[in-house]
Structure formats: structure tokens, C-alpha cells
């Protein structure tokens, strides 16, 4: 078994490799270097196989993961789980991630490998897969990982556990299918933001990426905002115009047009700017292309409401203290390794197997 120190060191080296890739892209360096050839091809062409995985968002995902896989970050994450110091029996874990987020499943993979278990993943899309490419790079960094990283066409029948993400419309069926198996199923959550009465335009501008990066499909995307009585929609739209290009993406535009049509037919009041619908609603399920908002009159009542809906909320974005865990505007996607999807602790699950 690879020692914990070697596992941490290898993942940190992988983070450095991803960071160097991001630096190279930012500086528009195009030297002929074989270590980047496959990754460049995948980043550039991922959208051909999945229209949601466009190059700018794939690059952003790589940038975020490069930061998460810094040595101090991994070390701090590992210290939260003293059991990692003990030798664990190696078990096989199947990862079934989301399909429309760049590097979906990477968090699960990092946890599995850090715990010393065997990762089973399947490439459903095409011959070039971003996560597959990155895990193979990890093997070149630490060859001992070759026994723990398994890309297969068919999952083995004797798998010890499953890490699964489900869509809202598939939730019941997924839970029923895996009910007899050892599994951790993550359902869809949303992130929310709170604007205080003294909010500034810079705060809304910082929220634009929290809302619209990755087409709003990650659990970490802000899909709903709670606003004070002095909030007006015209204060919002001018500060997200840098994302107007999203209306050129057919998949996103189709979702936007579909929900706009539904709201019109149902005579629901809403606002829109051609690429994002704002609608006042207490609902917590928010369609793609939409952002729901809700007015509040009391911070005490709002905090109680957020606690009531905590099982549906991934994280709360706010510039000031609410008495609960929050993140600053602009940081929704810069979450640490211990911020798990659906707030279900994957590492604890793995260490109990």
C-alpha cells in the first residue's frame, strides 16, 4: 500500500502540474511540449462530445482543482481524518458522477485515492476524457497508483461501494436501484446568496460567476438570492452582462427559451435580459437559465428559513456574518476539499468501509 505521505505528495504534484497548465494557457504559450498535447486536445474538444463542457469552463475547473490540490490544502484536509494514518484494507469503489460539469467525479476520485482504495470509473463519452487523462497523469507521477486506478467499460460485479450523483428526476429510481448496495447517493442541491441592505454593485458583479459559471449546473452555483426590500432588478442585470455570450450556446439557450415560454403560458411574472430569467419565488428547485429571488424583512427570520432548507442548500454566499457558515461573493466555486456535494462526507463514508 502507498503510504499516506506518498499519496499526499503525488496529489500535490498533480496539482502543480495542473497549475502549470493554467499558467501556460493564461500566458498563451503554445510551445510544442508533449506533456500538454493530450490535455490541450481534450480541453479544446470536450464540447464536441458534451455541449456543456466548453473550453472556458473546463479551464476554470482545472484552475480551481489546481488550487485545491496544493500541498497545504491536501495536508489540511488529511488532518481532519486521523484514520488515514492507519493502514486500511483496500476496497473497490465505483464512481458514477454528473455528466455536465467539468471534472465531475474528481472530488470522489481524490478521496478514494487519498484513502488508499481502488477507483473504478467508466468513460461513457468518447476516447478522450478529462478525468481519465488526469488520473493517468497521476500514475506517471506515482506509478504505484496504477493498481488503484481502473478505467473500465463495465463495472465489476463484486464492487464494495458506489459513489453516485443523481438528478432530481432520477432520484427515486437511483435510490431504489442502489438500495441493496453499499452506496452514497448525492442528490441535487443549490447554493444561495444573501444581499444585505447595504449591498453594492461590486457585490452583484462578484456574484455573476457564482451564478453563471458552468451554466449554473453545479451544486455550488448560486441559483437563488435572498434580497432586501430596497432591491430592484434593474440594479442586477447590468453587472452580469459579461456572460451575455452564453445565449450563443444552443443547449443553454434552449433551456432559457423553454422556461421563458412556460412562464409566459402560465402568466407568471418574471424579468429577463436575453440570457437569464429572474423570477420571485419561494421554490428551491430552479431550472437552468433561471435565478429565483425572494425578499426578506428580518435577518433572524431569514436565518431560520435557511436552516429549515439546509438539506437543499449546498452553501450560503454572503459578504457578512449571518451566524451560520457562509462564503464570500465570488468564491462559490473556490470551495475547499472538505466541502462535499450534498454536504455528505465522502471521506468518512470511505473510512468506515
Which features characterize this protein?
353 residues; alpha/beta; Aldehyde Dehydrogenase, Chain A, domain 2; 2 domains; six-stranded mixed β-sheet; 11 helices; 11 strands
- Basic shape: globular
Helix content: 25-40%
Overall mean pLDDT stands at 92
Beta-strand segment tally: 11
Look at the structure and name the CATH superfamily of the largest domain. Answer: Aldehyde Dehydrogenase, Chain A, domain 1
CATH-assigned fold name of the largest domain:
Aldehyde Dehydrogenase, Chain A, domain 1
Characterise the protein shown here:
This protein has 2 domains: 4-187, Aldehyde Dehydrogenase, Chain A, domain 1 (3-Layer(aba) Sandwich); 190-317, Aldehyde Dehydrogenase, Chain A, domain 2, CATH 3.40.309. The model has no long low-confidence stretch (mean pLDDT 92). The chain is globular. A 6-stranded mixed β-sheet has the order 8-9-10-7-6-11, sandwiched between helices. The protein has a 5-stranded parallel β-sheet with strand order 3-2-1-4-5, with helices on one face. The chain has helices at residues 4-26, 34-49, 55-68, 71-79, 106-114, 130-141, 171-177, 201-212, 250-265, 299-308, 346-351, and strands spanning 92-96, 118-122, 149-152, 161-165, 183-186, 190-194, 222-227, 271-272, 277-280, 290-295, 313-317. Helix 1 packs antiparallel against helix 3 (55-68) and helix 1 packs across helix 6 (130-141). By secondary structure, it is α/β, with parallel strands linked by helices.
Amino acid at each position: 500500500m502507498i503510504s499516506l505521505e506518498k499519496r499526499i505528495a503525488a496529489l500535490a504534484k498533480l496539482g502543480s502540474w495542473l497549475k502549470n497548465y493554467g499558467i501556460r494557457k493564461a500566458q498563451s504559450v503554445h510551445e510544442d511540449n508533449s506533456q500538454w498535447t493530450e490535455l490541450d486536445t481534450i480541453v479544446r474538444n470536450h464540447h464536441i462530445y458534451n455541449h456543456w463542457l466548453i473550453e472556458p469552463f473546463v479551464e476554470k475547473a482545472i484552475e480551481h482543482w489546481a488550487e485545491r490540490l496544493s500541498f497545504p490544502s491536501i495536508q489540511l484536509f488529511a488532518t481532519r481524518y486521523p484514520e488515514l494514518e492507519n493502514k486500511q484494507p483496500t476496497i473497490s469503489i465505483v464512481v458514477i458522477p454528473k455528466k455536465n460539469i467539468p471534472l465531475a467525479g474528481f472530488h470522489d476520485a481524490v478521496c478514494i485515492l487519498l484513502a488508499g482504495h481502488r477507483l473504478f470509473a467508466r468513460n461513457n463519452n468518447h476516447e478522450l476524457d478529462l478525468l481519465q487523462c488526469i488520473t493517468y497523469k497521476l500514475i506517471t507521477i506515482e506509478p504505484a497508483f496504477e493498481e488503484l486506478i481502473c478505467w473500465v467499460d463495465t463495472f465489476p460485479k463484486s464492487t464494495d461501494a458506489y459513489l453516485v450523483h443523481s438528478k432530481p428526476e432520477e432520484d427515486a429510481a437511483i435510490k431504489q436501484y442502489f438500495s441493496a448496495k453499499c452506496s452514497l447517493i448525492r442528490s441535487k442541491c443549490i447554493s444561495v446568496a444573501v444581499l444585505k441592505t447595504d449591498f453594492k454593485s461590486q457585490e452583484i458583479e462578484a456574484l455573476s460567476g457564482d451564478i453563471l459559471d458552468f451554466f449554473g449546473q453545479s451544486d455550488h452555483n448560486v441559483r437563488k438570492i435572498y434580497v432586501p426590500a430596497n432591491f430592484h432588478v434593474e440594479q442586477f442585470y447590468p453587472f452580469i452582462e459579461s456572460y451575455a455570450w452564453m445565449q450563443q450556446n444552443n443547449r443553454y439557450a434552449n433551456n432559457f427559451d423553454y422556461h421563458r415560454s412556460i412562464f409566459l403560458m402560465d402568466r407568471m411574472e418574471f424579468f429577463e435580459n436575453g440570457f437569464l430569467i429572474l423570477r420571485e419565488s419561494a421554490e428551491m428547485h430552479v431550472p437552468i437559465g433561471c435565478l429565483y429571488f425572494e425578499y426578506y424583512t428580518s435577518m433572524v427570520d431569514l436565518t431560520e428559513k435557511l436552516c429549515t432548507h439546509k438539506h437543499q442548500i449546498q452553501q450560503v454566499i454572503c459578504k457578512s456574518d449571518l451566524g451560520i457558515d457562509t462564503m464570500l461573493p465570488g468564491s462559490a466555486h473556490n470551495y475547499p476539499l472538505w466541502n462535499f456535494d450534498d454536504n455528505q462526507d465522502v471521506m468518512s463514508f470511505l473510512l468506515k468501509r
